[in-house]
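Supplementary Note 3. Input sequence used for the single-chain structure prediction.
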Amino acid sequence: MTVRPVLELPARVLSTPALRVGRIDDAARRLAEDLLHTMAASPACVGLAAPQIGVGRRAFAVDVTGHRKARSCHGPFVLFDPVVEDATSPETAREGCMSVRDLTGDVSRATAVTVSGLTVDGEPRTLHVDAFEARAVLHEIDHLDGLVFLDRVSGPHAVFARKVYR
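The predicted structure, written as discrete structure tokens, is reproduced below.
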């Protein structure tokens, strides 16, 4: 079990589009374990992308189990090379990020998403997520595209100092 440091802006890897993983091998499975362990060790963290731990590959972990805003919940999962197949019903809500610790912002994201990718076993998986889980998935996919939530806010009026970080 490895808990890795979570990088913060302006780390270059956070603004660089990640490369495809392709074949799921032992290195990819170790990356998945590191994502899950690092996320679990980080208070209030519901998602973590590989670039946030310094790995420029298209992989992320999400777990919204027990979150008060979650409706759909697939438990802890990792997806490699994710693709958004469908996204509907955008809604604006407040977001924070482990890589931007002192700020939050209002971001418009789809509230219903179909995403597909590969599991740690190399099997294709398609997930239908909604509400908070959809927001978390799209937030992590943004990291894979070299974006942080600040790139999605509608302007400076939609950025706020974080009051509490649990």
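The longest helix spans residues 26-40. Residues 12-161 form a domain with the Peptide Deformylase fold (CATH 3.90.45.10).
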